[in-house]
Structures are given as C-alpha cells and as structure tokens.
Write a structure and sequence with these properties.
Blueprint lengths: L6 H14 L3 E5 L18 H4 L2 H4 L2 H6 L1 H15 L5 H11 L5 E4 L5 H4 L5 E3 L2 E7 L6 E3 L19 E4 L8 H13 L2 E5 L10 H8 L3 E6 L10 E4 L2 H13 L3
Parallel strand pairs: 1-2, 1-7, 2-3, 7-8, 8-9
Antiparallel strand pairs: 4-5, 4-6
Helix pairs in contact: 1-10, 6-10, 8-9
The structure holds zinc ion.
Length: about 250
C-alpha cells in the first residue's frame, strides 16, 4: 500500500525502487502516447468515437470488407506517424543504463522503438507491419506507403496490419514473452494504462502476487491497492524526474 507523497518524494521513492531492483520492466498503454499527439483511441476525440468498433475494429469486419476497414486504417496510419516524447526517451535511456530490462506495451504506434528502446513486447501488435491473411507472409508498412490499401505481392489479397483486432486473441509469441517477464520481474512500472481489460489486467496483478513491486504513473491512478509508489501526473514529467534521480545516484 502506498502512502500519500508529494511529487518529489514519489519520484525519489520510485527511483530508489528502480535502483534497488534487479529485474525491472515497464508496462505501458495509450496514456503514454497522448503527449506525442496520439489521442487515446477510446477517448472522445479518438478513432472509436468516429468509427463503429464492430464495423471497423474486428477481424470479421476486415474479412468481410477489407477496403472499407482500410478507410479507418488510413487515418490510423497517419495518426501513428508521431514522435516519441520525453517519457519514451527516458525509458529508453533507463534500458541503456541497465535500470530497465524491457517494456511490455499495449500501444501499436512503435514510439518506444522510435525512442531507442530495444526490448519491447508489442502486446497488441504494430501498425508498422502488415500480414497477409491468405499466405501468412509479413511485410513492412513502409514498403506500401504510396500504395494503400496494400496488396500482397504473392497472392493479391489486401494486407492486414499486424495488430490485434478486438475479436482476436493476443499472439502466442507475445503471450509467451509476457509470461516470461511476469515470472521474474521484481518491479513493474505501469504507465498510461488503467489495466482494466483482460488479459492486460493480469500483468501487474501477477507481478504483485509474486512479490514484485509496482510503480504506477497515471493522471488518474487505478492500481493504488497494489502500487508501492503512485505518481499522479504526466508520463513525460514522471519519467524525466525518475531518470534525473537515478542519474544523480539516489
Ligand atoms: Zn499473401
């Protein structure tokens, strides 16, 4: 259980937890990309306020009418061409310095990698890779940017972004990577996600159950019961503040 702390105390406590951990990971969600100009897709200004989820957000919808779903996807492709923010960069720096082992992200925008993070598990896939539902081949989106909707060079089918649609299961390799992380993480920095959907919700819960500590960074904290430190506030400020403390040698 965390106690109420002011921002500086919280940052210092968080940095101390990171410094004393031996296997720290981060778990991020839509909230960390907001400062990069990507609105939460579920928010009032997000994609799903303008496109019906069942008509545009499911594998069934894509199989029925891929051209129609690509109207929404074109917008998505434009939205995710954004720049990482200071919070993404601080996480990448923490990995470089050995303070962070890796990141599990629910985001499909590739911003952690753009910031330089190397060990990133994309729980919901990525927009930047395309997959052919007919032959299973995968292609970089970049190769098709001038020819959207993209067509499979071998079978002529319209390619699907390699993201997990709402009626799809988490890919097996991502699930395996997550289980492996959860089994040995002694600290999890949860940022920009309220973890209220399964199976994302089980990630902090399992780390906590196994005795790992939780740091939560959210404007509206949701994990207070299990978090050792809660940082109410912006992702970029919290991560920069934590990194400063770490580099100063807390
Ligand atoms: Zn194909």
């Amino acid at each position: 259980m965390h106690e109420k702390m002011n921002m500086n105390e919280a940052l210092r406590s968080a940095a101390r937890l990171v410094a004393s951990s031996s296997s720290a990971y981060a778990f991020t969600g839509a909230g960390v990309s907001v400062e990069s100009g990507i609105p939460d897709f579920r928010s009032a200004s997000g994609l799903w306020s303008r496109y019906d989820l069942m008509e545009y957000g499911t594998l069934g919808a894509f199989r029925r009418d891929p051209k129609k779903v690509w109207k929404m996807l074109m917008e998505l492709v434009e939205i995710v061409h954004a720049m990482p923010n200071a919070g993404h960069r601080a996480m990448s720096r923490m990995e470089e310095r050995g303070w962070l082992r890796g990141i599990i992200t629910q985001n499909i925008d590739g911003l952690h990698q753009k910031a330089g993070s190397l060990n990133v598990v994309e729980f919901h896939g990525t927009v930047f890779r395309l997959v052919c539902l007919a032959c299973g081949r995968k292609f970089p989106l970049a190769d098709f940017m001038n020819a959207l909707p993209p067509v499979c060079p071998s079978c002529g089918e319209i390619l699907k972004p390699d993201v997990v649609f709402f009626d799809e299961a988490i890919p097996e390799d991502a699930m395996r990577a997550v289980k492996n992380i959860v089994a040995h993480a002694d600290l999890l920095i949860v940022a920009g996600t309220s973890c209220n959907v399964m199976p994302a919700a089980m990630i902090p819960a399992e780390v906590h159950q196994r005795g790992g500590r939780i740091i939560e960074i959210n404007p509206e904290p949701a994990l207070s019961d299990m978090a050792s430190v809660v940082i109410h506030g912006s992702f970029s400020k919290a991560m920069q503040g934590m990194l400063e403390q770490l580099e100063a040698g807390v």
